[in-house]
Write the structure tokens for this entry.
Amino acid sequence: MATCGPAPTASQRANFVAQMALVPLRTPVADLSGPRDALVSAVKQAFSFDNTACPGMLRLKMSPDHAQLLRAVHEESRRFFDMPRSAKDVYSTPPGYPSGPHRCGGYKIQKAFVDPDGGAEHVLNEWFVAGCPRPIDRSVEPEYYDSAAGHHFYADDTPRSWPEEVPTLRPAHDAYYLATEQVCFQLLEVFEEVIGFAPGDLLRRARREPFYVTTVAHYPELEATPPEGQVRIDAHYDQSLFALVGSCDAVNPLGGNLEVRALDGSWSEVGLGEGELVLNCGEQLARLSNGTLHHAVHRVNTPPAEALAGTSGGSSRSTSRISVMTYFQLDYDADITPIPQCVPEGSEPKYPPSIAAECILYTDPVVSAKLGFDVEAQKKMRIAQVRRASHPPLHLLLCICICIAPASAAD
């Protein structure tokens, strides 16, 4: 019987890390304007857990009009992010503002680090969050919108959500939002077919608008090397039903792009092209499909030191990027228990009963307890997220132990 043997040496660990470096990824591409059958087939190829080559991401070709709307949001957002920090802070999310996914919260620094030498703060990731152009009509279903959970998930716009300095940002966003909404409805029908829902069953779990907010992420030009292990967005999988990500910035060959982890534990760059969106499944879909659809772990890495501005040998190629993200959510009270069609006869579901709100708020047990959600179920979700985001799959770890055990020589 094979044993793990002595602990791996530093050089053996470095060897393993090198093997786990970025590998080429053939992300499938589908045309949103193409035949329905082709789109269904591409979704199955990209997200089926039974497919060992499953990339967990799908590139979608947009219509020319939709791509132009994305470019407009991209350009107007950059005008906002180019403003001085003090001007952007005016539009910051107010303290205590609800953290629900349908908020229109304005500006937020998502991640930053402090240069240990000079003490200066360097932003890795800053967001501008904007909501649905249509106002919420709470009178339609007051018991849903006016409950404690309703006020948390559907908070009103903050007093100063839209920057006065960039008056063209709001119309650009609103036009892109409405066009993207139609793509989301198209994808709902595709996912219904993929996982075996009757037509309209998935849409009935997302019948109260707004369905999402638009999150514009800006990864500024870096002028200092971040601490070791610090990335722009940590490895994670999304808690939404699904997500769409678009960008008009070319993939930087030096790094700092969107990366996805395959089922074998290897990381690859997704390689988003011009006029494309990237689609990935969230945990809500994984649960409804009883795990037959793969919600991939992904991250946005930090460019290597040689690519940073202000460093010796730095590249002239910009490391600044903007991504426009759409996280489609089900109604907060929607049932996301695995559907019977996805549970083999004689088997138990892989996931316990749950509702969308418990999935969305899994990182916030304090708010969840106040709203009466199952905090113990959320605790299990947090543990699963950390395990999947931090470690390769178990079968890969076993292979590592077997391969490393005989090589016990010192450095």
User: Anything to note?
Assistant: Confidence is low (pLDDT under 50) at residues 1-20, 311-315, 393-411.
